[in-house]
Q: What sequence folds into this?
C-alpha cells in the first residue's frame, strides 16, 4: 500500500469514528495540518427550503475572522462560494479570483490569511459543499498542487459524506422522509403533469385512492400543496 492510500485509510477510519459535527472539526483540522495548512472551513448547502436553503459551516479560523465574515455577510459575495455553486474544480485564492470583491480580499489578508485552496463537492442528492484549506504563508506551487490534489479532493469528498450523513440522520431532517412505493408512483406521474384521473387510469386504482396517496405524501414532506410536494420529493431524490 503506497503512502497516499495509507493516509486515506487512516483518515477514513478517523472520520468513521466521528458521531457529531463538534467532533468532526478537530479531525478535519488535523488532516488539514498534515496537508500543510493551518486553517480549514467546511461549508455545506442543503437544497431545501428553496426560499432559504440551509447552510451549515464548520471551521477553525480565528474568532475575529469568523465574526467579521458573518457580520459583513461575506457569504453572499464570496467568489469561492459562487464558484462552488456551479463547479467541482479546485480553486486557489488569487487577486484575479477576488477581483470583484476587493473589500473581502483586503479583509482576508488583514486577518492573516494569504493562501487558500478551495475544493467543492456536489452529490446526487443536490447537496453542495466547499472545503477550504488556508494558511498565511508560502503560495501553493504547481508541484504542491499536483502532489496533494488527490488528497485534498478525497478529504473534501469524505468530509462531505460524513457531514451530510450527520445532517440526514437528524430527526427533523427532510432527508429522513420516507414515502411508500405507491406515494412515490403517484408523485412521479403528477410530476409528469398527469391529473389524478389520468394517474388512476394508468396505475389501475381509483381517483380517490390517488388523491389519498398524494395527500399523504404532501403531508409527510411538509409541503403546502401537490406541486410543492413533487418539487421537494424530486430535490430529495425520493422520486
A:
Amino acid at each position: 500500500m503506497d503512502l497516499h492510500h495509507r493516509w486515506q485509510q487512516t483518515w477514513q477510519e478517523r472520520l468513521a469514528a466521528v458521531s457529531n459535527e463538534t467532533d468532526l472539526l478537530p479531525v478535519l483540522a488535523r488532516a488539514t495540518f498534515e496537508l500543510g495548512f493551518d486553517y480549514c472551513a467546511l461549508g455545506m448547502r442543503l437544497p431545501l427550503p428553496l426560499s432559504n436553503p440551509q447552510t451549515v459551516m464548520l471551521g477553525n479560523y480565528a474568532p475575529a475572522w469568523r465574526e467579521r465574515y458573518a457580520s459583513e455577510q461575506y457569504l453572499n459575495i464570496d467568489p469561492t462560494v459562487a464558484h462552488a455553486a456551479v463547479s467541482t474544480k479546485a480553486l486557489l485564492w488569487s487577486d484575479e479570483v477576488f477581483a470583484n470583491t476587493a473589500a473581502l480580499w483586503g479583509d482576508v489578508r488583514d486577518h492573516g490569511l494569504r493562501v487558500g485552496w478551495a475544493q467543492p463537492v456536489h452529490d446526487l442528492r443536490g447537496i453542495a459543499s466547499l472545503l477550504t484549506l488556508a494558511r498565511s504563508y508560502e503560495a501553493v506551487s504547481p508541484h504542491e498542487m499536483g502532489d496533494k490534489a488527490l488528497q485534498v479532493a478525497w478529504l473534501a469528498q469524505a468530509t462531505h459524506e460524513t457531514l451530510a450523513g450527520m445532517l440526514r440522520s437528524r430527526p427533523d431532517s427532510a432527508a429522513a422522509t420516507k414515502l411508500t412505493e405507491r406515494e412515490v408512483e403517484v408523485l412521479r406521474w403528477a410530476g409528469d403533469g398527469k391529473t389524478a384521473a389520468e394517474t388512476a387510469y394508468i396505475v389501475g386504482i381509483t381517483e380517490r385512492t390517488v388523491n389519498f396517496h398524494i395527500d399523504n405524501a404532501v403531508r409527510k414532506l411538509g409541503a403546502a400543496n401537490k406541486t410543492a410536494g413533487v418539487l421537494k420529493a424530486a430535490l430529495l431524490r425520493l422520486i
User: Anything to note?
Assistant: Residues 178 and 220 are 8 Å apart (CA to CA).
